[in-house]
Structures are given as structure tokens and as C-alpha cells.
Write the C-alpha cells for this entry.
Amino acid sequence: MNSSENFALPPPSPDINSFICFGNIGLQAFGFLSHCFRLGVLDITSVNISCFPYEILNLLFLRYLALGEFVDKLPPEISLLRSLETLIFHISVQCLELPESLKRMRNLRHICVRAPETVKGTCTLPSQEGITFRSLPFLLVNLKSLSWVDPKTCWDILRQNRNLKKLGVRGDMKNLWVFLHYRLLLLDRLENLKVSNASSGMSRLSLLDCPEKVFKASPGLSNFVARFANLEVSDASFGMSHKFKENQYDELRSVPIKFPQNIKKLTLENTYIKWDDLSTLGRSIPNLEVLKLLSDACIGLAWKTSRDFPKLKFLKFHFVKLMEWEVSSDDFPSLQRLVLVGCLELKMIPREIGEIPTLQVIEAHGCNRYVARSAWKIKEDQESMGNSGLQIIDYKNWWEGAKVYQLAQQDAISSSETEMEDEQ
């Protein structure tokens, strides 16, 4: 439903099953919706609201709810929507606390938080040390996807729902590092993982730093880790063979980061991983099919790959400061699509990329002219050998200074947001 100057709502009817708005219809619509009590799908993401519209709570058959940008909290009464399966909401603040009553929503399968690129918003969950926390039964057993959530506060939901398949965690580097080293492995059915460091400035930690190095660089972190890890292994259902205690750090120092073997999609942002460590990570996730490296996901100017990603089909560089990429045609034997966005420092796409027999598309968006030229040269070489199936998508690739960089970044952010919506 589109908005216009003479916009008029249809008469309320219990026969309306879906209401999707593509314009800002104003607050008048909420009174109208409260009479459509059989409504199953409600998408009002285009409507900017300052607080939660309580009229929605009358829609007891609602299965899909997508809300526009707002700054207020979700009310505890959200749990009245017992048929709700998908909850999507946009926030304009850096952190929004979810109500504890969400745990009672037995049918809820997807929780998705979206925020502007400049905000990098996330949601937090009530502290597990609170008295009311233990008073409500946990019924959120069908949850399949959760993003974005603060890794420091989401463990109550995760430890009681080991069936989660998609998870997006966003927080400061310390909490991300501890979460990935000491808790992630328990989510053995996870298939899609997104990790975003929201810390301002260059962190002293890398996501893949070993515990020994991290504890040495961050005095006091070992105490924090001991308390954090103790919460995890105190539950016998985890099948852990030992229990961390205060001042017993030998066990903590020896725990390497391990990812669930079922992960097929991985997105990293501001994680400051060395390129060599990324290759090691690839070998530890044998089923990885999609890898998206966003801003400052990796540090260093050169990457030399080997057969580290045997099943990777999709590889994306998004404003990654990579200058030299050394690769052979055997390194990515399953690669189908290569996407480069805002790669202004990359000298060229290695010609060996074109020799990958499965490659179908090379996309260069907002990169320097040398990246675009190398992409077309790869296509030319392939056509000379009788391979005409390679597609090149060349869009706004040039080098004209900071202004062009900003324009390319804006286009890339818009493209990224569209891609996120397509994934839902």
C-alpha cells in the first residue's frame, strides 16, 4: 500500500490477511489495523514511529511483524502475540533491551534487529542474575535465527536453544573474543554466523588472537574470562569434562577458537584478523560456502591463499584494505561468484581467478580502475580459450579521490542493506 496526499484507508475487515506499506502512512493506520483481527502479516517498516504502537497487540493471529525505526523499548506485552513467528524491527539507537517476556513466545522463530550503518545497533537481553529472570519459564524453543544481539547478554537464550541456525553478534571486541572462544562451539547446528565488532577505534585484540597473547595484552581479562566461562561449564548438559574456577587459567589459555563444523555462511566486520589467520580459519570450517569480509575484517596488505576454502562458492570483499592477492586456480575449486566493493587499494584481480572452472560472475563495485580492467582482461583471456560463460558486472569503478570514495561507500551500504533484506 503506497502513501499519497489523498491517501485513504480501506474499511476495516476481518478478511484482510496481509498489510504491507511502502510509504509513511501516519499514525491513523494503527487504529485501522486494530479492527483487522485476523491479520497474519504486517510490514510497516517505512513508517517512522517514536514508540511501539500498542494497537498491534490486538492482532492475536499475527505471524509476521516488521516495524519501522523507533527509539523506544519493545513492551513486555509483545508476548501477547502468541502466534508470532518472525519479528523484525529497526532501531536508531546503539543498544535496545529486549523484554524478558520474549522467552514465553513459543512460536517465535526469527528475531532480526536492523540499524543504520552509522549506528551499528544491537539488542541486549535481561541479565541472568536478575530475580525475575528465573521466574519465567523458557519456551523460546523454536528460535532459528537471532541478530543482532550483544554476545555478553544473549547466553541464556543460546544455551537453552542449541538448534539455532543463524546468529548475528555485535559488541565490543573483548566480549566477542570470549564468546567465540568459550561458547560458540556449543551451537553445533549453527549454519550462518555474522560477527561485528562495534568498538570504536582500532582494537588491541584480533578476533583470532590466542588466549595467551590476549591475556598478556589485556591485564585483568583472565579474571573476566574465568567468571564468563564458569557460567558456561557449570551446566552439566554441556558435557564439559572440567569446570573453570577462579585463578585457574591454564585451561583457559589452552583453549583455541573453534567454529561449529556446520557453518556455511560467515560474515566478519571490524574483526582485525590477519590474512594468514583467515586461511587457518578457512581450514577449520570445511563446509563454508559463503564468506563476506566487511570493513576492517582483516588487516595487512597481502594475502597468499592455498586450498583453504574447498567448498567456498561466494566470496565478498567490502571496503577491505587489501593491496596484493596471490592465488592459484586450485585455491578456490568451488568458487562461483567473486564480489569486490570499494576495494580502492587492490592492484588487480589475480588472473588465476579466471582459471577456476566453476567461476560464473566477477562483480566490481566502486573499486579503482585497475580492478575493473583486470576483471575484463580475465574475461578476454577466458573467451580466447573458448569459455564465454564468465559474466563481469562493472559498476562505478574509478579513482577520483575522497568524494568518489564516499559516493561509492553510500551505494555499497544501500546495496548491502538490500542484500540483508533478501536474506530474510
Remarks:
- Residues 1-6, 128-136, 227-255, 399-408 have pLDDT under 50 and may be disordered.
- The longest strand covers residues 64-70.
- The radius of gyration is 24 Å.
